[in-house]
Amino acid sequence: DVTEIEEEEAQAKQEEQIMKEQELSNLLHEKRYLKALGLAISLDRPHTVLMVVKAILKETDGRKHLEENIVRLRKDQKEAVLTFLVTWNTNSRNCHEAQAVIETLLRHEAPDSLLQYAGIKSAVESLLPYT
Fold this sequence. Notes:
mainly alpha
């Protein structure tokens, strides 16, 4: 019977999730935005990533800090943020944050580099009507 083993694994996953949530909360409180972005992306939490972006933009020189943090993300993390911001851009409450991230990506990534992103074609097609 593997029921007990499966229950232990599920509980371990749940405990790990809770630990990551607490770590994310601590990172936001400590204003360690790069790590918070990375963790929220790894947890596949678009709304949390949006909250981190909003927190960065509320800071003094928020655009500059946003640029610094987005530029330092890995390529796979930038791809994830790109897919998230397509959804953000469709909502008027979140479109400004989405546009700030798009602007940062367009300024700091070479066109050839952007073309290598997974899903870039569909992202651009989705962004155009709302941008």
